[in-house]
Amino acid sequence: AFQRLLPLVVLLLLVARPSSAVPSLHPVVLVPGNTCSQLEARLTDEYEPPPASGCGVPRQGRGWFRLWDNFTALQEDPSLFRCYADQLRLVYDPRAGDYRNVPGVKTRVVAFGTTRSFGSDDPSRKNVCMEGLVEALERVGYREGENLFGAPYDFRYAPAAPGLASRAFSGFSSSLRLLVERASQRNGNKPVVLVTHSLGGLFAAVFLDRTPLRWRRRYVKHLVMLCLGVGGSPLNMWPLASKALAANPTSLQAGVLTYGNRSFASMFSLLPSPRVYGRTPLVITRDRNYSADDMAEYLAAAGFSEDEVARYRTRALPVTLNLRAPLVPMTAMNGVGVPTVDKLVFWDANFSGKPKLVNGDGDGQINLETVLALQRGGSRTK
């Protein structure tokens, strides 16, 4: 669905452009989707690898290496699967009130300010992220570092409710603000077009909501959101519950991600919102159903601890419930007509197994209900 939307994105960016020259182009900042930013890691002596895994020993003290996306390395040595999965994990630091890396693992986002980290060395992911959009924009006159910029981020983290610590998102917000200002200044003080995909849309929406309105009106010409509604997706409830995905991944990357993503702060942010889905059954078992209103109970049944469920309630849920219009011109583009997970059936309540999938309409990832909620202002399903 994302690739089919690319011509519409390019057309939207060119609508206000006179036919004469490239200088009329407004600068564009791309914010990629979930898992579309490359991460590098460095291990210190503090890192304790999983027992009998051999992880870490060849890497400790040897500088930065590619942690995500790492298709080539995993193809050459599949035993690295557990290593990368362990090193991608996050832990919650109750003293700091925030998520952080596993002790001994240092990470950084690759090439912030550019689109160079949007690519993947996995041929099956060639069209998943924004590579095609970058190529299309370059064909109509955009140039990397001149009027085309990228804002990759660590997709494991997420915005937290106001007043709670979220060092990673705060750092991203500060960097994005400076990037937008520099992009505008470099292009004759023209305001910037923010183009986002998937989780990047959530990051951008929260960023704008927490930025002064005067700044938004000065620096942001348009927000374009691709493949994102306002209410999460039932599909995201599956990997949080089912260990079958990690045991039988569709690819080595999928296995690494599924193995570790129960620890990611961002997974809570992608769960279905009570404002959109309300009491609609999303997970069905013989004894009871779970709706978005029952998400805390579902997480507990799926094996999350009381502390983890509390973090969903206090950190992630308030962000989802309080998503607001960014008060800048906005266009949302989403695909329809593709079977998309609408409900999960764990009939015997065996959440470690593979559920029966009940499909509805959407783009294959994002359910139509959450897309339509944009038009309703995020109102609850009746």
**Order of the strands making up the biggest sheet:** 7-1-8-9-12
- The total number of structural domains is 1
Task: Enumerate how many helices there are, as a single number.
Answer: 15
**H and E string:** HEEEHHEEEHEHEHHEHHHHHEEHHEEEH
Name the structural class.
alpha/beta
Overall pLDDT score: 86
Tell me the β content.
Answer: 15-25%
Helical residue percent band: 25-40%
Low-confidence stretches: 18-22
Span between termini: 28 Å
Tell me, what's the shape? Answer: globular
The total count of strands amounts to: 14
For the biggest sheet, the summary is: 5 strands, parallel
Radius of gyration equals: 21 Å
In words, what does this structure look like?
- With 382 residues, the protein is of the alpha/beta class.
- The protein has one domain.
- Helix content is 34%, strand content 16%.
- The protein contains 15 helices and 14 strands.
- The chain has helices at 6-14, 71-76, 80-88, 131-139, 167-186, 199-209, 213-219, 237-241, 244-247, 252-260, 265-269, 274-277, 295-301, 306-321, 368-375, and strands at residues 28-31, 39-43, 65-68, 90-93, 98-101, 105-109, 148-150, 192-197, 220-226, 283-284, 289-290, 330-333, 340-345, 356-360.
- It has a 5-stranded parallel sheet, with helices on both faces. A 4-stranded mixed sheet has the order 11-10-13-14. It has a 3-stranded antiparallel sheet with strand order 3-2-6, with helices on one face.
- Strand 10 and strand 11 (289-290) form a beta hairpin.
- Helix 3 packs across helix 10.
- The model is unreliable at 18-22 (pLDDT under 50).
